[in-house]
Amino acid sequence: MTLLSLSDLTVFRNDCPIVDGVTVRVLPGECVGLIGPNGAGKTTLLRAALGLLEARGYSSLAALPASERARAVAWMPQAREIAWPVSVEAVIALGRIPHLPRGARLRDADRAAVDAAIAHMELEPMRHRTATHLSGGEQARVLIARALAQETPLLLADEPIAGLDPAHQIATMQVFAGLARAGRSVIVSLHDLAQAARHCTRLLMLDRGQLVADGPPAQVLTADNVARVFGVTAFYRDTPQGVVFQPMELTK
Ligand SMILES: Nc1ncnc2c1ncn2[C@@H]1O[C@H](COP(=O)(O)OP(=O)(O)OP(=O)(O)O)[C@@H](O)[C@H]1O
User: Fold this and answer.
1) Using one digit for the tens of pLDDT, what is the confidence trace for 52-102?
2) Ligand 1 atom at shortest distance from the alpha carbon of 37
3) What is the CA radius of gyration of the chain?
4) Is 46 within 8 Å of 187 (Cβ atoms)?
5) Is the C-alpha dihedral spanning 126, 132, 133, 137 positive or negative?
6) Distance separating alpha carbons of residues 26 and 185, to the nearest angstrom
7) Residue 215, Cβ neighbours under 10 Å: how many?
8) Which of 24, 31, 94, 205 counts the most CB atoms within 10 A of its CB?
9) Which amino acid residue places its CA nearest to atom 9 of ligand 1?
């Protein structure tokens, strides 16, 4: 079963392709990292895949009716300020809306999904706090929890670990990797190549709108690719404690 299929997806801005002919299939059980320099087109690709932007080519998600799409994919956008002064729990419960009959209250299964998301993101101590009073990183974790509560087969997250402290970055990536091991899939854009190398089963490397590498981290984060696309040298080693990746120096 394919959770996402993109075929020759292309987005133009001012007659220039900023996503250029991307073809990808994502299957259950994948934790996919979307990597690339600033401006490479990561956000644009995710938004076009979701049908939030007009694009040429095909996206299986964009082709779905909105109500079905909300049960097929959860989306955590890059802008993560929470606007409403309601409780953390209430924000996370919004993730259940796609599953509720119109106007219905939360049922036991919905409450269980909210509780599980709160536990996953270690938000129990703040579940009754006003969401707008939380720090930026805490708000980001609440929005990840809202996406988890949606219990979709696929989760798309745009830079979800940016601004999180190291422990919460690792914990969040472990949650995503765990979802993949349980048969769901995650596509996460990120700049932290070390976390991408450690936790993702597959990396998509985007450069000026084009998909230039697609495969397991060891095949994508080669010295050549990293130098060509990011302009840096890097240290990569498979150790008994897992992959260690560290960008080192500028190549130019
Ligand atoms: N609405 C728009 N109009 C014109 N150009 C745009 C628009 N949106 C994005 N772009 C351009 O498209 C390119 C890709 O942007 P995008 O935000 O997708 O990159 P990104 O890889 O997510 O970058 P970052 O890592 O900095 O978040 C950039 O050069 C950006 O300036």
Assistant:
1) 999 999 999 999 999 899 999 999 998 877 888 999 999 999 999 989 888
2) 25
3) 18
4) yes
5) positive
6) 8
7) 13
8) 205
9) 44
Tokens representing 124 are 């129990």
- Classified as helix, coil or strand, 213 is strand
What would the 3-class secondary structure string for 151-205 be? CCCEEEEECCCCCCCHHHHHHHHHHHHHHHHCCCEEEEECCCHHHHHHHCCEEEE
Distance of alpha carbon 128 from alpha carbon 123, whole angstroms: 10
What pLDDT score was predicted for residue 136?
84
Neighbours of 1 (CB within 10 A): 6
Taking only the tens place, the pLDDT of each residue in 100-110 is: 888 788 889 99
Q: How far apart are CA 221 and CA 215, in angstroms?
A: 9
Substitution candidate for ligand 1 out of 12, 14, 15, 18 with most atoms within 8 A of CB: 18
- Domains defined along the chain, listed by start: 4-79+153-250 (3.40.50.300)
- Which residues lie closer than 8 Å to 55 by C-beta, 6 or more apart? 9, 10, 11, 19, 48, 62
Q: Which has the closest alpha carbon to 54: 80, 19, 25?
A: 19
Tell me the pLDDT tens digit for each residue of 176-214.
999 999 999 999 999 999 999 999 999 999 999 999 999
Q: Strand 16-26 to strand 4-13: parallel, antiparallel, or no bridges (unpaired)? A: antiparallel
Contact 13 CB / ligand 1 (< 6 Å): yes
**Residue 148, Cβ neighbours under 10 Å: how many?**
26
Name the residue among 63, 40, 38, 39 with its Cα closest to residue 51: 63
What is the residue type of 64? L
